[in-house]
Write a structure and sequence with these properties.
The structure holds 2 protein chains of 2 kinds. By secondary structure, chain A is mainly α. Helices cover about 70% and strands about 0% of the residues of chain A. Chain A has 2 domains: about 120 residues; about 140 residues, no CATH class. Chain B is α/β, with parallel strands linked by helices. Classes of the chains: A mainly alpha, B alpha/beta.
Chain lengths: ~300, ~425
């Protein structure tokens, strides 16, 4: 029954759930009902999404994240799972922010549909790890940035004794813990991504040219690493604010780098998943590069 | 009039007056047993709390006892012998309500809308207890049973459908719920340190304890008072001279001393700050006037300092939001009172219809009996005749039945039932 499910099905579910989340801001009286509707619709979307991933063979290839489309789709699925989990645990409207991200990733997955990693024998896993780690770092820092913004918002409310608006925010303690977790996790993911990139540059022998993404990411990693070890006795330092700021900066920077990698003139993304030397490249006017791996030809 | 109430409450009667009418459970039970002997067949329930004493009574009978007659049952048994406590003397503070007003009074009281502290949770259980005592004394019947069940339902609706009780309006409750729980995820793993051992500190501790605060330390200039408060909350006592040391690990600090100078100065806090974990929040509640904590401390990282004025502003905001919800609650009470009175009237109408139908059926049966004694006919014809008589009676009764049923929705129902009773001698 679920075999014919497509991107449109689960995206529509996420969109409807998003409308319910927006409605919760306005109609606080019916909050429980709207939350239940939103949760159920998201859950249905999640089931459809899982079926889509299963029946499209995305998880049954020789290697995980075999195609770029599937890669983004799995990430969107992960974001929705996180949204469902946080809706129950944090009792705040994280879905309001995470569902648009999931929708964006779904759209990207649709766009990136047929582009597949070239099965270059030596580097395919390093390429996949490099890309996955950096995208995960972006997602984790996005979540951390979200918590960071909420942290500053909640702190401002408490400091200035401002009345609570329609949106209930989690406690500062919880937000602070999530910021710390996201900051640490994003540094680890960044480290793995940067190490993968370094390996590719040095050992893969692929044509390499320095660009904003390849230079900026290691710099960001070093900077992020420094903030992980603040001077322990620097008492005037607001560690929670530092973590929040860390996440916001990493998130913004990573989005810039990713956009540059994907759409910039250096073709970082294209070089990563389908190096010209290792695959047949079909290029037509007004169409993206479609790299067809040898075993699929 | 099916239901009446007579009583007095904190709005019109001082504590000295209310003392003459206050009763404990035993006194209420005793009074209700006396009532049953004096007024058999008349339902009654007695609600006695520190803020009110109210006697609800009701009956299907046309005549209820007068307020003057029931007044002795309102007086505490221990004071009934006092000749000074008379109906005439207290008539100006006694509240007497009938039918809709009486029903609305019971529903308002149960919903805690008539309480001294709006939304206090105890009144609901007090009304429930009063109803249980009346049931045990067998002074309740269909009218009061329905009234109390509707009152509990109304209270639930007011709680669920309005935000009246969701807003906290006392300083300690606002401090804990609207501030402390916005900073900390939970309180059961936090250290609470209380400076001062007065009533304010005690009340705040009560709220903190309700929300899970466990580790409590108390410090006061008078060690004896500190020990008393600490013992009450299973806490420990900290010497006044060691109070700053305790601040290095505390998460919540309540300051409510009578000192005229700050008991935590900025330079003292800066010394402490060096030894505190940098990511640990500190919630300070300065409930003293003049303030006991240097306001500059509130500007330090991870410190959230609130004075009475800050909390009062939040209380006022909550009060305003709560007051906007009161009309909604009143509307619910009016709806439920209308439904309750309609049910009561409908019950009386149904009873009148039943008796009318019984009377006519008796006449019909007697006439049929007489007819069949005079004529002999085959069973099929006899059946047809009986069927025709049944139809005749039903058709004759149809219009008055519908009129009575419709009238039960209005206040004219009792008059109509009364007219019916007189016309047909029911």
């Amino acid at each position: 029954m679920l075999k014919g499910v497509g991107v449109v099905c689960f995206s529509a579910c996420y969109l409807i759930a998003l409308f319910f989340e927006i409605a919760r801001l306005r109609f606080s009286k019916e909050d429980k009902l709207l939350f239940a509707c939103s949760y159920v619709v998201t859950l249905l979307g999640c089931i459809a999404h899982a079926a889509f991933l299963y029946y499209n063979d995305l998880l049954q290839n020789d290697h995980f994240f075999a195609s770029a489309g599937g890669w983004f789709s799995v990430l969107a699925f992960a974001v929705v799972l996180v949204a469902l989990f946080l809706s129950l645990v944090a009792k705040t409207q994280f879905s309001l922010f995470l569902l648009p991200l999931a929708l964006a990733l779904s759209v990207v997955s649709l766009r990136a549909g047929n582009v597949a990693f070239t099965p270059a024998a030596t580097c395919i896993w390093v390429r996949a790890t490099h890309a996955t780690a950096l995208l995960l770092a972006t997602l984790v820092s996005f979540f951390g940035a979200l918590c960071g913004v909420m942290y500053f918002w909640q702190r401002n409310r408490l400091r200035k004794n401002v009345a609570e608006s329609s949106m209930t925010l989690p406690s500062l303690e919880w937000l602070s813990r999530m910021c710390r977790f996201a900051a640490n996790a994003s540094v680890v993911a960044l480290g793995i991504g940067v190490a993968g990139g370094f390996y590719l540059k040095v050992f893969s022998g692929t044509s390499s040219q320095a660009d904003l993404a390849s230079v900026g990411t290691p710099c960001l990693f070093l900077l992020a690493l420094l903030t992980r070890f603040p001077k322990r006795r620097a008492q005037s330092l607001d560690v929670c604010a530092l973590n929040s700021t860390h996440n916001i900066v990493v998130c913004v920077a990573m989005i810039v780098f990713l956009l540059f990698a994907a759409f910039g003139p250096s073709g970082h993304w294209k070089r990563l998943i389908a190096p010209e030397s290792e695959s047949t490249v079909l290029k037509t006017e007004n169409e993206p590069i479609i790299a067809v791996p040898p075993n699929r030809r | 009039m099916p239901i009446r109430v007579v009583g007095l409450n904190y709005r019109v009667a001082s504590i000295e007056v209310r003392e003459n009418f206050a009763m404990d459970s035993d006194a209420v039970s005793k009074t209700l047993l006396e009532w049953r002997e004096s007024f058999p067949g008349i339902e009654a329930a007695l609600l006695s709390t520190c803020n009110r004493t109210e006697l609800y009574f009701a009956s299907d009978l046309d005549v209820l006892p007068s307020y003057e007659e029931v007044f002795p049952f309102l007086v505490a048994p221990s004071r009934r012998h006092n000749n000074d406590i008379t109906f005439d003397r207290y008539s100006d503070v006694l509240q007497t309500l009938e039918e809709r007003d009486a029903a609305e009074q019971l529903f308002s009281v149960t919903s805690s809308l008539d309480s001294m502290i709006l939304g206090e949770p105890q009144i609901h259980s007090q009304v429930k207890h009063a109803y249980e005592l009346a049931s045990e004394a067998q002074t309740t019947g269909p009218i009061l049973n329905d009234a109390f069940q509707t009152a509990f339902k109304t209270a639930k609706r007011v709680t669920v459908e309005t935000d009246v009780f969701k807003r906290r309006v006392s300083v300690p409750s606002v401090a804990v719920v609207d501030f402390a729980l916005k900073i900390f995820e939970r309180l059961n793993d936090k250290k609470t340190f209380v400076l001062g051992a007065g009533e304010v500190a005690e009340e705040t501790l009560k709220y903190l304890s309700d929300y899970g605060a466990r580790s409590i330390a108390v410090s006061n200039r008078s060690r004896e008072k500190a020990e008393r408060l600490a013992a009450q909350w299973e806490g420990r006592v900290v010497d006044w001279v060691d109070r700053l040391q305790e601040l290095t690990t505390a998460d919540l600090v309540i300051v409510a001393t009578g000192a005229s100078e700050p008991v935590i100065a900025l330079d003292e806090y800066l010394d402490i700050e060096r030894t505190r974990k940098p990511d640990k929040s500190l919630f300070i509640l300065d409930l003293a006037a003049p303030r006991n904590v240097d306001p500059q401390i509130g500007k330090r990282p991870n410190v959230f300092l609130y004075s009475v004025d800050d909390l009062e502003a939040a209380c006022a905001r909550n009060r305003e939001l709560r007051d906007r919800e009161i009309p909604k609650a009143r509307k619910i009470i009016q709806e439920e009172a209308t439904r309750y009175l309609t049910n009561i009237r409908a019950r009386k109408s149904i009873e009148a219809i039943r008796r009318l139908r019984e009377g006519w059926n008796d006449i019909k049966d007697a006439e049929l009996e007489r007819l069949f004694n005079k004529i002999s006919c085959d069973p099929q014809l006899e059946g047809e005749i009986r069927y025709a008589f049944d139809r005749l009676v039903n058709k004759l009764l149809h219009s008055p039945t519908i009129s009575l049923r419709n009238a039960s929705q209005t206040e004219s129902a009792p008059r109509l039932v009364e007219a019916l009773k007189r016309l047909f001698r029911l």
